[in-house]
Amino acid sequence: MNDWTKTGLFVATAVAVSAAGFGTYFATQPKATSTEDFVGKPLFESLEAEQVKSLEVVARDPVTQTLRRFKVENRDGVWRIPSHHNYPA
Questions:
Q1: What is the pLDDT of residue 10?
Q2: Does the structure show a pLDDT above 80 at 86?
Q3: Nearest-angstrom CA–CA distance, 40 and 59
Q4: Of 80, 55, 79, nearest to 69 (Cα)?
Q5: Phi, psi of 62 (to 5 degrees)
Q6: Bridge partners (DSSP) listed for residue 69
Q7: Residue-wise DSSP of 4-48
Q8: Longest Cα pair distance anywhere in the chain, in angstroms?
Q9: Could you tell me the pLDDT band of residue 23, with boundaries at 50, 70 and 90?
Q10: What percentage of the chain carries pLDDT values higher than 70?
Q11: Per-residue pLDDT at 74 exceeds 80
Q12: Is 74 in contact with 50 (CB distance < 8 Å)?
């Protein structure tokens, strides 16, 4: 086997592995959902307000891919924001 054949096999293998990697990456990406589908609708149909002890909402920034979190907790009958020194909500 000469050097050109070895180089050709190496390049063909690299192209095949790269194509498989790209294919796997794009095939496993989550499908985009529109937030408009959730506006004005309850998050949970059968949930009673007395059952809830805390609620956390997480939003993802599509540009920077960072998460923004907001949480409220019901402590001693008062809803509070833990991230802001338990400020009453």
A1: 94
A2: yes
A3: 17
A4: 55
A5: -70, -20
A6: 58
A7: HHHHHHHHHHHHHHHHHHHHHHHHTSPPP--GGGTTTS-S-TT--
A8: 80
A9: very high
A10: 100
A11: yes
A12: no
Distance separating alpha carbons of residues 66 and 58, to the nearest angstrom: 10
User: Which tokens is 2 given?
Assistant: 């000469």
Can you tell me the mean pLDDT for 55-82? 90
Hey, how many other C-beta atoms are within 10 angstroms of the C-beta on 55?
A: 13
Place of tokens 């960072």: 66
Tokens of 50: 């007395």
3-class SS of residue 52: coil
Beta bridge partner(s), residue 88: 80
- Structure-block tokens of residue 42: 């309850």
Q: Are 73 and 64 in contact (CB under 8 A)?
A: no
| Residue 73: partners with Cβ closer than 8 Å, 6 or more residues away | 53, 54, 79, 80, 82
